[in-house]
Design a protein that fits this description.
This protein has about 325 residues and is of the alpha/beta class. The protein is built from 17 helices and eight strands. The protein binds adenine (ADE) and zinc ion. Its cofactor is Zn(2+).
Length: about 325
Amino acid sequence: TDFDTFIEGLPKAELHLHIEGSLEPELMFELARRNAVAIPFASVEEVRAAYAFSNLQDFLDIYYAGADVLRTRADFHDLAMAYFTRAARDGVVHAELMFDPQTHTDRGMPFAEVIEGLLSGMRAAEAQFGITSSLILSFLRHLSEEAAFATLEMAEPWLDRIAAVGLDSSEVGHPPSKFARVFAAAREKGLRITAHAGEEGPPEYVQEALDLLKVERLDHGNRALEDEALVARLLSEGMTLTVCPLSNLKLCVVEDLADHPLDRMLALGLRATVNSDDPAYFGGYVADNYRAIAKARGLSREDLVTLARNSFTGSFLPRETVARHV
Ligand code: ADE
Ligand code: ZN
């Protein structure tokens, strides 16, 4: 329809995308074959059938298992290019890719292979599709502070090619306070700051992300809405929220998309954006997320334009580049 064409044609930035979460079952099989890695699935259909989650941890278990087929620099290049090829069709002109180095270095992959493969895919995507991109190094919060420090140290030779640090994985029981010192060290190195907070975790975790990590944007942030004073603070700070509707549905953060708070966020004046999180696992890329939430909550074209504009103002692009996009 016209509405779908409008969504796809809207130039947008994607701010919340785990590149490992864009590994489609087809590529998983191809890499398993190429690298002679055994996977516990007989077919692409069987893989897709296993993607039924009742919470974040359910998903993470299968997501980390899937990442095991990624073994070489070329694999990371191909993974990134597959994402950009798909994102180009959705009107993505800029993407800030989160990657989880610990998922790979803990399996014995050199950090250099992971990041050089991604950077190579990012260069190819800019040449082929004109999509600009940057990297967000995300620490796994279920692992220790010490492990996060070791990861930051590994990244040292590439700091000029990493825009920001982030925090992801199992939220409940791993509050932002656990990583306050690592994030302070990252800030001192000139890295920008984001963190997942308020996806499953309570509003207090969002507060900690602001106070202790000094986040410049908030990944998810849904549960911040439970605390009126916190909402007022997010408003006054002009905080960007990277919201992921289909992820929220698949991970049971919302029971139904009809209950999703995205339009409430917009009505409150919060700078919400729409993103795909882990598109291969949650059944849709960024335009699918725009479409699904627009339909479920009756968003107007004006709302969609606001969401797309927020994706640029909330990006880590230089101000003058943002100005060219909004
Ligand atoms: N890692 C990949 N996707 C994630 C999500 N939605 N929340 C936390 N960690 C993640
Ligand atoms: Zn995420």
